[in-house]
Write a structure and sequence with these properties.
The protein is of the alpha/beta class. The protein is 36% helix and 20% strand. The chain is built from ten helices and twelve strands. α1 links the parallel β1 and β2. α1 packs across α9. The longest helix has 16 residues. The mean pLDDT is 94.
Length: 287
């Protein structure tokens, strides 16, 4: 029961009705047994400054941030961490005695998906497909954890070089249609899809990977979680590669947010079960 002692948490976005965060965080709360409440709050873009100040004044312990506020929220925070600065987005805010601290837990979520399968990043040769916002979290996670080389492969290399210019010292950006892409696939230890190709409802889409070039020892990760087995992952499995779906990253980023707010490492299995149930009930796959 919610009382005057209840610690308030939530998620802001516009729209917010189909957010999956409440299902996962409520499962974490039940498993942890604490006196917490987590609610979804629709915030129009023009209302974001007032919403941030309102949540501060209402003493919310923290809140998640989803589309379209992940970058805009930065202006209204007191501090952001290195991950958020590198990625250029905040998805979690912690209220420390009235100071709003911006964090990005997508890196932790992505890395959880690797550690669950026993995959070490340090010294690996990694290929990332796509250069959008999600790719920034993946690339930074690989760089931060000591990958020996990170290749970003895209349709339009010139456009990607502009969007990832601050990673110039750490990554090589190439086009899908060149010989360099074939060479990168041959050498990849970790292959990650960050594009929306293959996401529901376009289930037969997939990045243009020649699977004959990919080593069977390579680990293949698709950050899409609807469906849980994309065409990209099915083709990787047919090649004999071990794979990971995007559900692990989504659960991982939510689990890290819960830990930041509460100091408790939540039950990730309970969160994943709640996520899968929500997806089965027709949630449309927004954080």
């Amino acid at each position: 029961m919610v009382s005057g002692r209840t610690i308030n948490l939530g998620v802001i976005g516009w729209p917010i009705a189909h957010s999956l965060s409440p299902a996962m965080q409520e499962a974490a709360i039940r498993a942890a047994g604490g006196d917490y409440s987590y609610i979804a709050m629709p915030v129009r873009p023009e209302d974001l400054p007032r919403a941030a100040e309102g949540l501060r004044c209402l003493n919310f312990r923290g809140f998640n941030v989803t589309i379209p506020h992940k970058t805009a929220i930065i202006e209204w925070l007191d501090e952001i961490d290195e991950d958020a600065r590198r990625i250029g987005a905040v998805n979690t805010v912690v209220n420390e005695n009235g100071r709003l601290l911006g964090r990005n837990t997508d890196v932790a979520g992505f890395l959880l998906g690797l550690s669950q399968k026993g995959i070490a990043v340090r010294g690996s040769r990694s290929v990332v497909l796509g250069a959008g916002g999600a790719a920034r979290a993946v690339v930074w996670g690989l760089v931060r954890e000591g990958a020996a080389g990170v290749v970003v492969a895209v349709r339009n290399a010139a456009k990607a070089k502009a969007s990832l210019s601050d990673f110039d010292a750490h990554v090589e950006i190439i086009s899908w249609d060149g010989d360099a892409f074939a060479e990168a696939l041959k050498n990849a230890d970790i292959l990650v899809n960050t594009t929306p190709l293959g996401m529901t409802p376009n289930l037969e889409d997939a990045p243009p990977v020649n699977w004959a070039l990919v080593r069977r020892e390579a680990f293949v990760y698709d950050i899409i979680y609807t469906p849980s087995r994309t065409r990209f992952l099915r083709e990787a499995e047919a090649r004999g590669c071990r794979v990971q779906s995007g559900a692990a990253m989504l659960v991982g980023q939510g689990a890290e947010a819960f830990r930041l707010w509460t100091g408790i490492r939540p039950d990730e299995h309970a969160m994943e079960t709640a996520l899968l149930e929500a997806l089965g009930a027709g949630a449309e796959g927004k954080e």
